[in-house]
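not sure who needs this but someone in the group chat was asking about Fumarylacetoacetate hydrolase family protein from Pseudonocardia nematodicida so here u go. i didnt clean anything up, its just raw.
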Amino acid sequence: MAGRLCLLSGDELVDVARASGGRFDADPQQVYPRWPELREWAAGRPQADPRTAPPPDAGAPAPYPRQCFGIGLNYADHVGESGLQTPTEPVVFGKFASCLTGPGAPLVLPSDTVDWEVELVVVIGREARRVPERVAWEHVAGLTIGQDLSDRALQFSGPAPQQFGLGKSLPGFGPTGPWLVTPDELDDPDDLEISCTLNGATVQHSRTTHLIFDVRSLVAYLSGRLPLHPGDVIFTGTPAGIGSGRDPQVFLRPGDELVSRIEGLGRLVTRVATAT
């Protein structure tokens, strides 16, 4: 609610700062260094229902992480539609944190070559340094839905290296939400249905079990090269069905509506602003 940290208890929103008597900050980003303490405080409350509609002023679950990573080419079918070779290790790029928005923020198109990419998004809950895969989930605060929106013309412009991160980090290009769901609330956090519709038509559909590098391996890989901090964000990659992979290519237009769904995490609605 208006950028304040809230806990979804059943279908009720609890303002954490007020309910805890000021024990926790109202700023969502400030809770991640104290994630185990928050989990303990919240224990015993009714399990959240991710189908609950978020308030219209809901913000991003992790609005300004110290680090925000993107992973490219992480589903085999997306590798195929891109005409590239299957990577032998994660393809990592930076997605600037200033692009992150909440579920209700309208998308203003900067060009006519903006594409969609539904993704499972990981938020780190404990500092991770050289974490082995077998304990990687212990360092995850929760999962949410994201769109790694991309201006393809900008992304692939210029000489090598191309403007990969910049083309995926323009204002509003990182909608996330509506909820952050802890892994223990999911029957199998490694196998979730993931899909995206554009104006009601399904454009992407897969399961996260098809990730080439799953959450465990990504946390282990990244933490083996640099520290992951509480509140850091990882966009884990998109399945096939992007607009630029179609013939003819399809890009977002004013008035379009993207609905991104991941099993157990709810749905993220992204509306493209109409021209003024």
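also Residues 215-223 form the longest helix (9 residues). if thats useful
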